[in-house]
Design goal:
Shape: globular
Number of strands: 22
Strand order of the largest sheet: 3-2-1-4-5-6
CATH class of the largest domain: Alpha Beta
Distance between the termini: 23 Å
Radius of gyration: 23 Å
């Protein structure tokens, strides 16, 4: 696959690194020569210094022969123009653009990004993606990772096992017998910096981070059995009134049963947020100000969510809020090095916008009938949601006889609106939605399993 990436920022670098590891032919365009040089020195990619919206620069990057352009510069306008030129002049088949400004995303202008107007095939909105991730984390506070698949019917949960967890030091084959109500499939285990696919004779240890897949309606019960039942927050304090904070507040208002306070440092933005929200009390001030936090009622809050534009403010505000009495803290963190630091300081959970955006883009890069992708641990593994076709080697044989790669594990299947967990004698049928985990080295094998072959037509 030949791919042009416009923008060598964190998201562009993340996509380039993932595709380079998969031996794709990648060219990165950016106006910052230092970013381009650093990227080409670290990765097996080609770099071009220039503006990604200029025809001559795109031509030099090989736009006439490329399969896909991914425009993720910091400028919405550059991303839009790059996709338009790739369509009009170079007939690039797939065009993906990151669009941040809410004005472009207003539903009343939904026809703007259509083939007859501005021909962008996929629009990525980081703020909306991150806000939705925050909301999912709030709904399942015990988990450090939550991702929905199959139209929300199947959830993948990341959970750290505490010393009191009842399934520790027990072979996984016995867990189902001891806990028949634990309707989950453990698809991956992260231990000592490595992730692996568990087998029936493996045991789980204290402090293991596991990823399990389950019917959305059975997740709460599973967490209860695992000793990690935590009630959804009823009092929430949001620090940061930008697009993410506003989106989260609006969604929480729709739930109808929460007391929400929002703190915003900029007085004009605070006034705008107050006008756009109905039941949220908006306070103008700094999330680092103890008096403001106290006025927001942080001492009685189950969760404080810090989503300002500053990682430092998000981490420190979370720490101060917890010291003032907040039970849990969820922070937005852009710089990877702040992730481990935030946990050591007592921040319960953090959200990485780059990982979310990269995962969203990858689901459109993956070949075959792939409907959703979520990367784990900087790409060490992927959770994949795919549709099984009649020509797939998975269809028609019991799973016990299917030659799945060693690093691939089926987590759940959605069939006729029913969520099924895999068993040795289960037979996958054409049309099933299959959610599975694949270690990095087997992703290409998974793509082949769900490929559309000529026999399908």
């Amino acid at each position: 696959m030949r791919v042009i990436i416009c923008g060598a920022g964190r998201v562009g670098q993340g996509i380039a690194a993932r595709l380079a590891k998969e031996n794709a032919d990648v060219t990165v365009i950016d106006q910052d020569k230092d970013l381009v040089r650093g990227l080409t020195e670290r990765l097996d990619v080609r770099g071009i210094v220039g503006n990604g919206s200029y025809p001559e620069v795109l031509a030099e990057a090989g736009a006439r022969e490329t399969d896909m352009v991914i425009a993720v510069t910091y400028s919405d306008e550059v991303n839009i123009v790059a996709c338009q030129i790739c369509h009009s002049l170079f007939d690039v088949p797939t065009k993906i653009a990151r669009i941040r400004a809410s004005s472009y995303l207003d539903p009343k202008y939904s026809d703007l990004f259509s083939r007859s107007h501005i021909p962008i095939d996929v629009i990525i909105s980081p703020e909306q993606e991150v806000a939705e991730s925050v909301i999912q984390r709030l709904s399942t506070p015990a988990a450090f990772e939550v991702k929905s698949f199959a139209d929300g019917r199947i959830w993948a949960i990341g959970l750290k096992l505490e010393p009191e967890c009842p399934i520790l030091y027990t072979p996984l084959r016995q867990v189902a017998e001891l806990f028949p109500d634990l309707n989950i499939t453990i698809v991956a285990v992260h231990r000592d910096g490595k992730i692996f696919r568990p087998h029936a004779d493996d045991q789980l240890n204290e402090n293991d981070e596991i990823y399990f897949v389950a019917d959305r309606m059975k997740v709460d019960r599973a967490l209860q059995i695992l000793g990690e039942e935590k009630r959804q927050a009823r009092r929430v304090v949001i620090v940061g009134g930008g697009n993410i904070g506003l989106h989260v507040a609006k969604h929480l208002e729709e739930l109808g049963s929460m007391k929400i306070r929002l703190i915003e440092a900029d007085p004009d933005r605070a006034a705008e947020a107050a006008a756009m929200l109905e039941r949220t009390i908006v306070l103008n001030g700094s999330g680092l100000d103890r008096d403001i936090l106290r006025e927001a009622g942080v001492a009685n809050a189950e969760t404080v969510v810090t989503v300002t534009n500053s990682d430092q403010v998000n981490v420190l505000s979370s720490v101060v809020a917890k010291r003032e009495g907040a039970r849990r803290a969820l922070a937005l963190i852009n710089q990877p090095e702040y992730g481990a630091l935030s946990e050591s300081l007592g921040v319960d959970r953090f959200v990485d916008p780059q990982a979310i955006t990269v995962s969203t883009i990858l689901q459109h890069v993956r070949r075959g009938r792939i409907k959703g992708v979520y990367t784990l641990l900087d790409g060490q593994a992927e959770l994949i949601d795919a549709i099984a076709l009649e020509t797939s080697p998975l269809v028609g044989e019991p799973l016990s006889k299917t030659e799945l790669p060693a690093g691939v594990m089926v987590g759940a299947i959605l069939r006729n609106d029913e969520v099924l967990l895999p068993s040795a004698d289960m037979i996958i049928e054409a049309g099933d939605r299959v959610v599975l985990m694949s270690l990095r080295q087997h992703v290409k094998d998974v793509e082949q399993m769900f490929r559309v072959s000529l026999e399908y037509f």
